[in-house]
Amino acid sequence: MPLPAIEITHLSTQFGKMVIHEDVNMTIQQQEIVAIIGGSGTGKSTILREIILLERPISGSIKVLGREVLGLSDRQAQWLRRECGMMFQNGALFSSLTVAENVAIPLQEHTQLSKTTIAELVAYKIALVGLPPTAGNKYPSQLSGGMIKRAAVARALALDPKILFLDEPTAGLDPVGADSLDDMILQLRELLGLTIVIVTHDLDTLWKVTDRIAVLADKKVLAVEPIRDLLKIDHAWLKEYFHGVRGRVTAYAHEPV
Ligand SMILES: Nc1ncnc2c1ncn2[C@@H]1O[C@H](COP(=O)(O)OP(=O)(O)OP(=O)(O)O)[C@@H](O)[C@H]1O
To answer: Residues in domain ABC transporter (predicted)?
Structure first.
């Protein structure tokens, strides 16, 4: 049995007096696509940030590919930054740099590769996310919302991570753009064997791309189950989420009865 990609145990998070997570437990297997859902402010993005050490929990354990990350020094954390690529909400690209320059940054910072090799790798990553070669010379302000997300994914993939985190990948996109981004997520898993963890509110994404969904509620992970099993759970927030009008319409679109 391969090591889990991510194993979170007894994780607690607090900002000042505000308790966000209390004994959160969750395991994600390699090559799984798992979404994290929950109401606003339940700490979905915080979990992603904690896994890559941008935020510190007050207690608990986070193992990435079998290795505890919470005690890693800055130098040891280099390993983690290679294994984990992150697409932040809204892309977080540097607006004064072109797409190609943005994608090149991790390669310049973390490798000794020549300029020519970096340029070749950048072109490959740009193609991998379905952007045309001409996108490389454009600035973020010249791109559509969907292209910005793809460029941010290309940058997240620069160092060939095994795990990709996507924070609200389809937010702000029109339905066609969102659907094609969902396709890209599935293709990346198939092509690269990635483990993908997505924070999303997008019901279509949940139906189309996830293997399992982790539900954050009451400061804990309520369940990590395939969507069909979540529909059966008797919990107020889940019922509202999946059995409200939007939830029912989306379910019907994906699984008409
Ligand atoms: N560094 C921080 N310092 C203080 N409070 C923080 C910090 N980071 C997050 N928070 C707070 O913790 C809570 C959880 O934030 P987080 O962004 O993880 O929620 P979320 O579930 O992703 O929410 P949303 O769906 O609205 O994006 C929020 O109340 C947020 O304001």
So the answer is: 6-243
